[in-house]
Amino acid sequence: MRLFYQQPAQKWEQALPLGNGRLGAMVYGGTSKELIMLNEDTLWSGFPRDVQNPTALSHLPRVRELLAADRFHEAQLLIESTMLGPWNESYQPLGSLHLNWLNEPEVSVYERELVLETAVAASSYGTPGRLIHTECFVSQPDQLLMYTMRGPDLRVELALDSLLPHRVSAQASELLLTGQAPTHVEPSYIDTADSGVFFDEAQPGMRFAVQLRVRQEGGTLEVRDGRLVVLGATLLELRLAAATSFAGVAVKPNLGPEPLELCRQVHTRAEAFSGPTLRERHLADHAQAFGRVELELEDEDQWATGQTLPTDQRLQRFAKGKPDNALAVLLFQYGRYLLVASSRVGTQPANLQGIWSHELRPAWSANWTTNINAQMNYWPVETCGLGELSEPLFRMIRELSQTGAETARKQFGCRGWTANHNVDLWRASVPVGGYAGYAYWPLGGAWLCRHLWEHFLFTEDLSWLRTEGFPLMAEAALFLLDWLVETPEGYLGTAPSISPENNYLVADGTMCSVSRSSTMDVSIIRDLFQACLTAHQLLGGPEPVQGLVAGIRSSLPRLRPQLVGRHGQLQEWFRDFDEHDPHHRHLSHLYGAYPAAELTPEDTPELIHAVRTSLERRGDEGTGWSLAWKVNLWARLGDGDHAWKLIGRQLRPAESEGSENGSGAYPNLLGAHPPFQIDGNFGVTAGIAEMLLQSHRGEVHLLPALPAAWKGGRVSGLKARGNLQVGMTWSGGRLTSAWLECPHAKDVTVRCGHQTWAVSLGAGERRTLSLDSKE
């Protein structure tokens, strides 16, 4: 399980990612010039402020009147001119560490790698007998980046810089960079006269610091013009700490802690450990999370491809139709690796780019986009044995429930809390500026609540559900009860409503996005309402919000049912409109099939047939995250071959001529939207797990969507709902062994193909299934 290459990275999309959830690094592995680009997960533009639109609510009745009269385009124009808000803030790059050789080494051999099991990036280059070895990791237990270089006669200049306003100083064996983030950054995809980067002395932005301490063996260490110069060393050890003045989403960053003092504290604590000890502590911490799941797939050419071909060449080879199941395993484990590296207890959640970004105005602000992308980042958490890594997401939901309560009251006239499609560090929950087809969508909070419910289903932690999960779910459901209106068709529905980012055509050919009661809206509402009823039944006692249960029970039967359109597809809008783009990347109307489980082949076969038709009409192309959603949907349909076909499309080299619009995988296996978005990596990891194990119908379903290409293999450590850990082997496309384990006693129904088992588990007992050889 490693990515490796025979040349240094020439650009960001070829560098190798490291991280501890908070501090991120992209390592280029250069020979004459080494570059390590840095990020810190709280370094954002802006500050906490009131961004509510005070007049939006007054226009809502008129919008609803227009929608009831089928004047959809007028309603949309009114929303866009009167009911949207400002753009949210942007994730910012921290800076860069440079190591420049003063005597460029002769290089005849070269290799760099990222080992997933150790989370260590390394390079080796030079000539036989005169090699230089480098190694880099970012430690979670010690909160610093560690870089070592070994070789004869090391002559290297060390420097720090940043794209943000900053100062650099050098003294003795230390480099220090301090700076400040902008007070506002307009998104780079908005081409307006006032877009850009803004600084306001009256509202200071986030302060940050990077402190590098250097130790060498042999030679000398000098200070020259704000840089450090190492001459004639045989070992170079760099310890880098970074921090910001972030003190919470409601605290202005100029009032937060001193970043340099935080860096000094990190270094002081790390002084107690030698370099090798820091490495051992890092390895142990990473292994306890990453090492929980093992996956192997039989591959006739596995040894040759996995051990001798560099990763970029494997991508090219696979794109030409050469089999490489081990590449799918690498992609699966890479997603788990990236999640461990970008989301830890106490950090920010993984954003659109995880924690890795190198631009002042990153695409889509590198924020949390809650109409699919933020949720997809956390799809693999439970199934892939990393449940505790949801903590940052749950904390963000709690914080959003505070800002979202203001948005619910001031902009929607509702109780409870809501969030629209864009969220930043300051937990902005308002509809942002621009286009109603993405901006005006107050269902983001309700969708986020699905992760709370899934966490309970996987852990069965009633105490957590009572104190953490259900109260947040209940307040989001309260918003929905108030947001629902009676539609002209006689249902309870939403108005205005969109199917995120997609458009339809009205009779005169006008393109619109705003209508009423989209399928996605109704699916999310039904999903959350049913979860709240089940949670209340399990917990007993008083409901978190008085009248909630009665309100849900009276509203649920009045929600519009799922409809089948004239093409046999699952209808996306309340009316069977023509789609403006039949191949649109969003699959919002299929929410009920995945990530929810309202629609299943066993329980709703006619609607599942409509889901299949919708997928076929959408086609097999798409951006990275769209392909990943399709992988999960085809897995839920039990079609492993189609899911595998789409994984193959995700593994196309993003920079090759055969890639549709530049989508696919970059040389470092990061997913291309394009540009880079990490949700495709996380989504396909969840999809591969879904092909091997499903548990959304109250049973454990083994190998539900096994493709013909995966004839044999083994997996261990996957999680099923009910707090179950599962392992299995298969050969010739048939299950050969399987085991289950649960920390508490439990009766479980297990299925594989047409065979079922009734399994009684004792607390902590591992039970192996007795397989029917005829099955």
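The record above closes out task 2.4. Task 2.5 opens with a second protein, given below.
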Amino acid sequence: VALATLMYEILLTRIFSVTMWYHFAFVAISIAMFGMTVGAIAVYLLPQFFSPKQTPFHLALSALLFSFTIVLSFLTHLSIPFVPPKDLVSLYAVILTYAVIAVPFFFSGISICLCLTRFPRQIGRLYAADLSGAALGCILLVILLSLTDGPTAVLFVAAGAATGALCFALGAHHRTLLRLALFTSLSLTLAGIGHTALLNRQTSLLRIAWIKGRPDKPALYEKWNSFSRIQIFGDPNKTSTPTGWGFSANAPLDRAVPQLFLLIDATAGTVLTGFDGNLEPLDYLKYDLTNLAHHIRSDANVLAVGVGGGRDLLSALVFRQKSVTGVEINQAIVGALKDRFGPFTGHLDKHPQITLVNDEARSYIARTEEQYDLLQISLIDTWAATSAGAFVLSENALYTTEAWQTFLNRLSPNGILTVSRWYFKDSPGEMYRLTALSSASLKAQGIHNPRDHIVIVRCARAEEEGEGPDGLGNILVCKSPFTPQDLKTLEHTANRLGFEIVLSPSYAADPTFEALANAQNLDAFTQAFPLNIAPPTDNNPFFFHMLRLRDILNPERWNQGVNTVNLQAVTVLGTLLFTVVLLTGLCIIGPLIWTARKKDLKSATPLLLFFAAIGSGFMLVEISQMQHLIVFLGHPTYGLTVVLFSLLLSSGLGSFLTQKWAASAGTRSLLILLGVLLLFGILTPHAIQAYRSATTPIRIFVAILLLCPLGLCMGMAFPFGMKQAFQRWPELTPWFWGINGATSVCASVLAVVIALSAGISASFWTGVGCYTLAFFTYWKTQATPTH
């Protein structure tokens, strides 16, 4: 049941990334997880219904209802168009969506709560099973999504929940539930297998109907994995006008070329261009702003970050560059380019001048010993909800000062880092932040006058009256100062193509660009700016989130063009924090006022604080390490399979070790935990720095070595607390478990708030503070005599 619960939670995050905007997906997951807390509170409030004698029956029934409602609630979610709340109808649709997806977690919460509160002698083993099942679910989901799609995976997860119900029904000796659970498990498994066979033929009976409020169109090709859904649309036998986002008004777009269109999570788009080996029809790529650097660096070794449909690879060939290495993180995209659409794209992976690499770009660049004349990053976003929790990995490791220093170190002496982003003439927040990032990175390289190394060029859209960005911006950062010949060539090219130079060593379009490029008092200037345009770091890698938390109620800060979705996301996050804190308070205070006696309340307060502290502490530490180590490990899947799996599995082992230990050993264990947390916080930055350039297996091994002692000690806290509860307040144990769950959800939001405002390390040390509180409250409980 725990395995199915975590798999469904993560799977919903992946699906919500397609059906919702990522910040609303984060809200949905938080509200859904509160369903587990409500289930635990129901067990506490209804002791006569959930009588100990009926525990085996209720375990089987709740697990079976968990399985049923997974399918039913998911089908209901697919049938509701999700749009941001603008009126009462859309607000009702959002609330209905959140309520529907919370239902399965309610029954999961009942089942797990009964397990952890009705068998006091087995608490260590049962909590170990809970954590180990969740850890195994991390691995299984990655495998499952490599074999099938998101909606079909829901069937397999529901089959897993039914299998849990089958095990419980065996223990309850209840024939009806036993037969029903067996039938449900087998039926859902067979349905999942059958539908996967249909998917392999690119046909589907169970598919997403609505994406972000609009109907989802059938695709020519669709593929899911643990961190994306890709779709490819179009007809490979038809031609159309070349597609691009930074074309000059003088571009020869009067021809037609074969094109297919690739969408990632229904939002991020790229183009697959038909290629038969003849480069002449593709000369329009010379008129694209993203390729500006090619005009001043010829016969170059090029590295393109984010291959997508292969556009940057073709651009390097059009400019007759020496070689091009394309690094693409998404295996589904690489597979589509090489296999299914290889004949259409001319099998770029087999071209003698092209090297196609399936890896995370920053990690690959850190490990390679090659030097490049051009390093190209064109419109690489991370707006999608990720596999580890929608907001958790909305950071981007490509846009930090540490990353750019790595990039600069891999450039040849005259090499250029060229980065393209959306440009808004009235408020070019992204380009401002890129300029600050460039200046800070160059200063860290010992360069005293960054402005001599930076050029920014803008391409305006022809239809400036329409919605969306005013155009595209391209920043060029040269490892050595731009030469007079470089600048002359850039100026000539910009004039010929109708581009506008926004920043150069001798010109700045506005005082902000000038101040950022000169890098004098950079920190003071960025702090005073209305938006957060400070250079991101690995400790605060949220490049796209420029709204400070103190401004979440200021609508004047929200309208920033295409980046508005990220600014509004911070407002949603602040609202969510208020909501979950309110819900946590209601879950804690409401049931107590209704049922508990004042004498019990007063004596149980230290243990209440203990469970609240360990629930918050575990989540703060877990999420901070997922955010921190994903940059080190270099792939979203590793954040799931390495960080989450290692923490949960080692925590399960820690819980198992407490099985035969008395509650009095808890104080000593918590003290050891504090020591381990302290060492972890001190040693981890040094270990990451030392092994940043190591091979992937070594980095994974280092991460596991760091995480396992931490998880081992953190896993001991909950069973020790429950042993205390069983000895003194057995009737309150469901409520204690509910408190632990409610504060965990609250802390999952708080972790992101802290990371956005003060950095990931601040989130970790807040978690350490929670465990410090847990130690003192547990010690206080131990010191209080039993009445």
